[in-house]
Every structure is written in C-alpha cells, then in structure tokens.
Amino acid sequence: MASLLESGWQYLTTNFSDFQLATFGTFIIHESVFFLSGIPSIFLERSGLFSEYKIQKKVNTPAAQWRCIVKLVLYHVFVNLPIMVLSYPAFRYMGLKSSLPLPPWPVVLSQVIFYFILEDFVFYWGHRMLHTKWLYQHVHSVHHEYATPFGLTSEYAHPAEILMLGFGTVLGPALTGPHLFTLWLWMSLRVIETVEAHSGYDFPWSPSKFLPLYGGAEFHDFHHRVLYTQSGNYSSTFTYMDWLFGTDRDYWKQKALEGKNGKDF
Ligand SMILES: [Zn+2]
Ligand SMILES: [Zn+2]
User: Fold this and answer.
1) Coiled-coil stretches, from where to where (predicted)?
2) In the prediction, which pLDDT does 229 show?
3) Whose atoms come closest to the Cα of 161: which ligand?
4) Which ligand is nearest to the CA of 229?
5) Could you tell me the distance, in angstroms and rounded to a whole number, from the CA of residue 126 to the centre of ligand 1?
6) The whole model's pTM is what?
7) Under a CB-based contact definition with an 8 Å cutoff, are residues 196 and 217 in contact?
8) Residue 199 Cα, ligand 2 centroid: separation in angstroms?
9) What are the structural domain ranges in the chain?
10) How far is 264 from 12, CA to CA, in rounded Å?
11) The pLDDT of residue 165
12) CA 4 to ligand 1 center in whole angstroms
C-alpha cells in the first residue's frame, strides 16, 4: 500500500488513541463524506442546473431542505455519535484494529465487497418490514416525508430506523474484525452510494449505467415517489434481491410506460 497513506496513518496513530480514532475520527469522516457528497444536489435543485437529468419535476423548497439539514445534524450528534462511543468496546472485542501495517488491498477490497453484499441483504428484509403498516406509520414514514429525495435525505430517518438499518452496516465489519482503515473506506463508499441513490438525478455518468445489478438514483427514487404499499425496490445497493422476490415489478412496468409515453413526473 502506498507509503504516503501509511505515513498519514502513522501520524494519526501517533497523535490520537485507538478510542479517539474509532469514535470521533469515524464521526468526523462520516460527517465530511456525507455533507460533501450530499450538498451538491441541493445546489443543483436550487439553481436548475442539469434539470434535464432530474428524475422528478418537483423541487424541494429551501425551507424543506433546511428542515432536513437541521434534523440531520441533531440526529448525528445526539444519536449517531453516542452509538459510536458506546459500541467501541464491542468493536474492539470483534477484532477492530488501527495499528500499522495497513492491510493489503486484496483484503481491504474483498472485505468491502462482502460488506456491500451482506448489508444489501439485511437492508432488503429490514426495509420490507419497515413497509408493514405499524412500522411504516410509526417509524419509516419519517424517511418518506421527502417524496422527492435529494442527497441529504438518505440519512433522514427515525432514530429507531437508524439503529435497525445501521445494524446491516456494522454486521459485516463485526463479523470480520477489520482494520479501522477498511471500516472508514466501507463507511465512506456506503455513504456516497446512498447519497447518490437519493440525489434525485439520473446522470449519464451515474454508476448504475456502468455497474451491473447496481440500483442507483432512478431505482430508489421510484421507491420514494409512489404509495408506501406499492413502492417495492427495497434494496439499498443492488437490484437482484428485488428481482428475486418480485418486488421490482411495478418499477419495471412504470419504466416500460415511460418508454412509450415519454417521462412525466
Ligand atoms: Zn421505504
Ligand atoms: Zn430512501
């Protein structure tokens, strides 16, 4: 692994404790990746730039965007951060380490791919449960307040949902006891993936255009814009779970109609 990366890591482990890196370090990395990747879609909505790639015609008001940002900051500070601090002993027990040398890339990448596949499976079933009547009304309807999603709405959810679906995010790392570097890379890629899925824009350069079985913005946008009992498309990252269990039928029907009539949302 590149020596520049190892020198940077050396600096971190010399100046900060394992606890500080795994908790506050993880929090800072999460906030940076989340807001840096999520804020551009707010500016695109406001400016009207690239409107030809916007999936829905409707745009969110600045007040609705601000409400989302304020609630997110509160949830992150008062829910996510305490969870990171409280779960540190469990991660240590599961084998989380931060010392040099950094793991080789084949190990890092195979672990991250495993985390994506496992998280998608857990998320699919958890999300399907959240679309049952009681759980939807009391928990998941918060995430669906935004029928026209923008990047930052990806983490806009009831605290109980953050806990429930966050389980899928930490399950893979908990099973494999990764290096903190791998954990940060996984978290960053997962955040970028879900922010893109909620961005509201389907660009010609979106990952779904190049990666087979990848869901992306158009796939998840459909989930937000239709009635909760008919939404389908429950997966977080891939499309095959919805295909296997037949929960993507309405989406493909709608796509076929769009093909006939031209896009009109
Ligand atoms: Zn949902
Ligand atoms: Zn969503």
Assistant:
1) none
2) 76
3) 1
4) 1
5) 10
6) 0.94
7) yes
8) 10
9) 3-261
10) 51
11) 86
12) 41
Q: Are 163 and 86 in contact (CB under 8 A)?
A: no
- Distance of CA 119 from the midpoint of ligand 1 (Å): 16
Q: How far is the CA of 224 from the centre of ligand 1 (A)?
A: 7
Q: Give per-10-residue mean pLDDT for the chain (265 aa).
A: 86 96 97 97 94 94 96 96 93 91 96 98 96 95 96 96 91 93 97 97 95 96 86 95 96 86 50
Rounded to the nearest angstrom, the distance between the alpha carbon of 256 and the centre of ligand 1 is 22
Ligand nearest to the CA of 135: 1
Report the 10 Å Cβ neighbour count for 213.
13
Which ligand sits nearest to residue 220's alpha carbon?
2
Distance 237 CA to ligand 2 centre (A): 11
- What pLDDT is recorded for position 265? 46
Q: From ligand 2's centre to the CA of 224, what distance in Å?
A: 6
Backbone angles phi, psi at 31, to 5 degrees: -60, -45
DSSP the chain: --HHHHHHHHHHHHHS-HHHIIIIIHHHHHHHHHHHHHHHHHHHHHH-TTGGGBSSS----HHHHHHHHHHHHHHIIIIIHHHHHHTHHHHHHTT-B-PSSPPPHHHHHHHHHHHHHHHHHHHHHHHHHHTSHHHHHHTGGGGGG-SS--GGGGG---HHHHHHHHHHHHHHHHHH--BHHHHHHHHHHHHHHHHHHTSSB--TTSGGGTSTTB-HHHHHHHHHHS-TTT-----SSBSHHHHHTTTTHHHHHHHHHHHHH----
Return all residues near 138 (Cβ < 8 A) that are at least 6 apart: 158
Instruction: Return the pLDDT at 1.
Output: 53
Please report which ligand is nearest the Cα atom of 153.
2
Q: Which residues pair with 246 in a beta bridge?
A: none
